[in-house]
What does this fold into?
Amino acid sequence: MLDRGVLLDLAVLRTRGTISTYANDGGKPVELNVLQNMVLNTRLQFLVLYTAGPEARTAAAQDVAAAVRDGALPVGEEHGLPLIRFPLDRTADAHRAVESRAVGKVLVDVRS
It folds into this structure.
């Protein structure tokens, strides 16, 4: 059974598109439709940040910061990506929210 995220990725993927992943759902296996992916010439890119190297991490952080500055990554309830904030002393609750598949971005405010 395909995960909802993979189903959406495949539904909007164009020919020679790339699906990139940096996390999993507890190690569950994923089944892919080989013919569909052959026709699309799909590329699957897996990423572990710990092994990407400092140059790649710096470049990625700069690219994401530029995208945020340019408004290319909108967040908030109105964009379907609510911000869920936790103070530092509730970091365990933030982890539980992520593990329970909270919809949105879970943030820990280190200043509180």
Remarks:
- The chain has a mean pLDDT of 89.
- Strands lie at 18-21, 43-46, 83-87, 105-109.
- Residues 88 and 94 are 9 Å apart (CA to CA).
- The domain at 1-73 is CATH 3.40.50.720 (Rossmann fold).
